[in-house]
Structure formats: structure tokens, C-alpha cells
Design goal:
The structure holds 2 protein chains of 2 kinds. Helices cover 35% and strands 11% of the residues of chain A. Chain A is of the alpha+beta class. Chain A folds into 2 domains: 109 residues, Beta-grasp domain (Ubiquitin-like (UB roll)); 131 residues, Alpha-helical ferredoxin (Fumarate Reductase Iron-sulfur Protein, Chain B, domain 2). Chain A is elongated. The N and C termini of chain A lie far apart (63 Å). Chain B is mainly alpha-helical. Chain B has one domain. Chain B contains 8 helices and no strands. In chain B, α1 crosses α3, α1 runs parallel beside α8 and α5 packs across α7. The longest helix of chain B is centred in the first third of the chain and has 30 residues. Chain B starts with a helix and ends in a 10-residue tail after the last helix. The chains are: A alpha+beta, B mainly alpha. At the A-B interface, α7 and α8 of A face α3 and α7 of B. The structure holds iron/sulfur cluster and FE2/S2 (inorganic) cluster. The site of FE2/S2 (inorganic) cluster has 13 residues of chain A, from loops.
């Protein structure tokens, strides 16, 4: 297969970036999108040009490092799935493919397709943890958790922190990420002691990073590789309202 | 949250207003006495009007500040953008909202303050000495441009509500995985029912199914 790529190139955070065209020739349909970029990069290096910088780590959809907007969709056309799980057979032979970074003000661009997503880490640092010492694993039946709750917590905990939700959101809002992180602890007994302060702190941290506001377009859940449901955003809103009331009541 | 709460008050008004309007199909007596009753509320009517106005202003103020923040949150735009799930209605809420606002201003000038149509001054009181709202509506809508703008206004209102209604539940956290798709459908249904309800009036007038009660 052959493709025409239009890739966002930008030397450093301050430089002005632009889309640059490249040819990818003789690509096997079973190459992954990132491998295809690797091959293009080998060609660039052979010609003495600067290779395209992009992020990746596990390349199997579990780490949340890869972060490409392919043809205007965060993580590309294969939802649910991360950019590293997209295969070239997904595209038409001869197609033009536009590759851009995740764009949001709280994700400053470092180089080419690489952005700094530590804003998400700071939201988690604001309260997305349990402060008590957990010790070693307790006896399994000492804390009973209904199956349904455990499942919901597990679904929320599946978030890999990739930031695609904010990248795809028309408002660059990170509500889906924050909702997942707040919810998985809110569902479990271990998360209860800090439940009120956690949601307030994390939402404040999220706003302070400069993310936009949720207007319920649900574009986030459509691109989320971990299939986090936007109904968790309703849960986040619920948690937030209750926590605000509690704080105002001095609890 | 404020956007959601003020929004729901405005939806309630839109539905109430529609029920009032639809009385046109019951004849001049109904509409005129309904209008007379509203006016007889006196200070209460003004209280309701001011309440709605404050609601509307809060709704507009907060949505505009949200929209500005949202724009700032993505200073560099995508060169190519493709939406997977976000609907047209959900992406253009500000646009539909502002056009509806323009419509509301015109609509008030037209039918409440009555400064845009000189013929309304010629209207005589109805047989029971009430203002002939019925004929005013009919003459108003006989103008094709007035009706066209009205239908356009209602179309954008419906578009706005098709996203806004279910959005209310999501924003206040009154939603979950099972409810969400049902609320989305119900919200759209309500919005387009409102559209059909409102537009049925100018359409009926233009088709001469509803005729004025007096000549001018
Ligand atoms: S919610 Fe989904 S899209 Fe957002 S950061 Fe988590 S895994 Fe990525
Ligand atoms: S590289 Fe780990 S999720 Fe894509």
C-alpha cells in the first residue's frame, strides 16, 4: 500500500509548526500506524533529515502514551482503541492521512507530535489517591463489595490517562478523565473517607490547568480507548454538587 | 449548573407559551380571553416577566463566558477535524442560541410591544371589548416574511433544545448509563414536538385555515 502523509512538524514549543507532506511506499496492510511512522522515520534518517517525533511506549493500548490525532480523530479511526492499535489496512490504498498532535492549551507542544500531558498528572496529584497506608493485601472477604460496584469501579479504573478525551472535545475539556479518576475511588469503600474533598480538589485542579468546560457533546466517550462512559461525567457532576453542599454545610 | 437550571425554566416557559398559542385553533374567544386573563394578573404578570428575563440574562451571561473559556482552551486549532459523535446541534449551541435571542427580541417588538406592524393599531376590540389578540396573530402571520422568520426561529430553538433538554440532566448529574440514551431521545422528541406545535400556527394562517375575526 502507499499513502500520502501530512504530518505536523514543529521544531520546539515556540516555533511555528506546519503540515509537511511525506510519502509512505510499500506499506504492508498489517503494519501498525506507529510502525509505518517508524519506517518513514528510517527513510528520513537515511536522507539525513530530522525524524518525526511522536510518543509511544507499550504499543498495545494499555499505557496511554501514544497521542496522535489521525485525520481529525483522536487515536485515529479505530474506536475504541489507542493510536498504537490502528493498522494500515484501516485506510484506503493511496489515501492522504493527516497526522496532528493532541491539541489543548493544557497540553503544551514539545516537538512535532509530542505534547506534555502532565496537566493530567497534576489533576490526579490533587486528590486522585487514597492517603491512608494500605499495608499488605487484606483478607479478601474482610471488606465486602457488591459485584456490581466492583465492576463499575473497574470500568472507571480502566482509564489509561491518554488525554484523548480532552484532545477530541470541541471545548478541550478533560471531564471524562477527571470523571473516571474520581469515580473509581468513589465506588469503593477505600475511597470514602476523602470522597468529598477529593472531587472538589480534583475539579479545582482541572479548572486551574485551563481545560474547557463540558457541554455534553460526548465526543470524548466516542474516542476513549478504554470505553469510559460519559455517564461517569454525570456521576462527577453529582459527586461535585453533593460535595459542595456538604462543604457549605461545614461537614 | 446555572446554565442548566435557567435552561429548564426557559423550557418550561416555551412549553407554557406553546400551550397558550395553540388555543388559536379553538377560536378567537379562547385566545382573547386567555390573553385577558394573563393581563389581569397585573403585577404578577410583571413578576413572571422579570423572573423570565433574569433567567434569560443569566443563561446568556454564563453560556457566553463558558464559550469564551472553551475557545481559550484550544488556542491552536486542528487543521483537519472530524467528529465521531458530537451532533451538529451540540456543537453550534452558541450560534443557535444567539439567533433565537434575535428572534425573541423581534418577536417581543412584534407581538408584545407591537411597534413593527402599523396595522395592529387599526384592530378594534372584540365583541366582549377585549383586545383582539386572535386577529393580531392572524394578520401578523399573513406576512410571509414574518412567518418565515418565525419558522426559522423555531427551527433553531428546536435544534438548541434537542441538545439542551437532555444536557440539563447530564449537567446536574441526574443521568446514568441506562437513562442517557432514553433522555437523549426524549429531549429530541420534545424539541421537535415544540417545533411542530409552534410552526403549525403560521402554516395554518398561510393556508387560510385560520382567518382573522375582523376586517381592517
Ligand atoms: S477517559 Fe479515556 S480518553 Fe480520557 S484519558 Fe482516560 S482513557 Fe484516555
Ligand atoms: S503506546 Fe501504549 S497505549 Fe499506545
Amino acid at each position: 500500500m502507499r499513502f500520502k502523509l501530512k504530518v505536523w512538524r514543529q521544531k520546539d514549543p515556540k516555533a511555528k509548526g506546519k503540515l509537511v507532506e511525506y510519502e509512505a511506499i510499500g506499506v504492508s496492510p498489517n503494519t501498525s500506524f506507529l510502525e509505518m511512522l517508524d519506517v518513514v522515520n528510517e527513510g528520513l534518517v537515511a536522507r539525513g533529515e530530522e525524524p518525526i517525533a511522536f510518543d509511544s511506549d507499550c504499543r498495545e493500548g494499555i499505557c496511554g502514551t501514544c497521542s496522535l490525532t489521525i485525520n481529525g480523530e483522536a487515536h485515529g479511526p479505530d474506536h475504541p482503541g489507542a493510536a498504537c492499535e490502528v493498522y494500515m489496512r484501516r485506510f484506503k490504498d493511496g489515501a492522504t492521512i493527516v497526522v496532528e498532535p493532541f491539541r489543548a492549551k493544557p497540553f503544551p507542544l514539545i516537538k512535532d507530535l509530542v505534547v506534555d500531558r502532565s496537566a493530567l498528572d497534576r489533576i490526579v496529584q490533587a486528590g486522585g489517591f487514597v492517603a491512608a497506608r494500605a499495608g499488605s493485601a487484606p483478607e479478601a472477604n474482610s471488606t465486602l463489595i457488591p459485584k456490581h460496584r466492583a465492576d463499575r469501579a473497574m470500568e472507571a479504573a480502566a482509564c489509561i490517562g491518554c488525554g484523548a478525551c480532552a484532545a477530541a472535545c470541541p471545548n478541550a475539556s478533560a471531564m471524562l478523565f477527571t470523571a473516571a479518576k474520581v469515580s473509581h475511588l468513589a465506588f469503593l469503600p477505600q475511597g470514602q473517607p476523602e470522597r468529598t474533598s477529593r472531587v472538589l480538589k480534583m475539579v479545582t485542579a482541572m479548572d486551574a490547568e485551563g481545560f474547557g468546560n463540558c457541554t455534553n457533546t460526548y465526543e470524548c466517550e466516542a474516542v476513549c480507548p478504554a470505553e469510559i462512559s460519559a455517564s461517569l461525567i454525570a456521576k462527577l457532576n453529582r459527586e461535585y454538587v453533593i460535595a459542595s453542599l456538604r462543604r457549605n454545610a461545614g461537614e | 449548573m446555572i446554565v442548566a437550571i435557567t435552561g429548564v425554566v426557559l423550557i418550561a416557559f416555551v412549553i407554557g407559551h406553546l400551550l397558550g398559542n395553540l388555543q388559536i385553533f379553538l377560536g378567537p374567544d379562547w385566545v382573547n380571553s386567555y390573553a385577558e386573563h394573563l393581563r389581569a394578573l397585573g403585577p404578577l404578570l410583571w413578576a413572571i416577566r422579570i423572573f423570565l428575563l433574569v433567567n434569560l440574562l443569566l443563561h446568556i451571561f454564563y453560556t457566553i463566558s463558558l464559550a469564551i473559556e472553551n475557545r481559550r482552551a484550544r488556542p491552536v486549532h486542528y487543521r483537519k477535524r472530524d467528529y465521531v459523535k458530537a451532533t451538529f446541534a451540540s456543537r453550534y449551541m452558541a450560534m443557535s442560541g444567539l439567533i433565537v435571542l434575535a428572534f425573541i427580541l423581534y418577536h417581543l417588538a412584534h407581538f408584545t410591544v407591537r411597534v413593527t406592524d402599523p396595522r395592529f393599531l387599526l384592530l378594534k376590540a372584540d365583541p366582549l371589548n377585549r383586545y383582539d389578540v386572535y386577529s393580531m396573530m392572524v394578520y401578523g402571520f399573513q406576512n410571509i416574511f414574518v412567518s418565515a422568520f418565525y419558522v426559522l426561529g423555531m427551527f433553531l430553538l428546536a435544534l438548541h433544545l434537542s441538545h439542551g433538554t437532555s444536557s440539563f440532566f447530564q449537567s446536574l448529574g441526574l443521568n446514568d448509563e441506562k437513562l442517557a440514551p432514553r433522555l437523549a431521545v426524549a429531549g429530541r422528541l420534545l424539541a421537535w414536538l415544540i417545533f411542530v406545535g409552534y410552526t403549525s400556527i403560521p402554516v395554518a394562517v398561510l393556508l387560510h385555515l385560520v382567518k382573522p375575526a375582523q376586517q381592517i
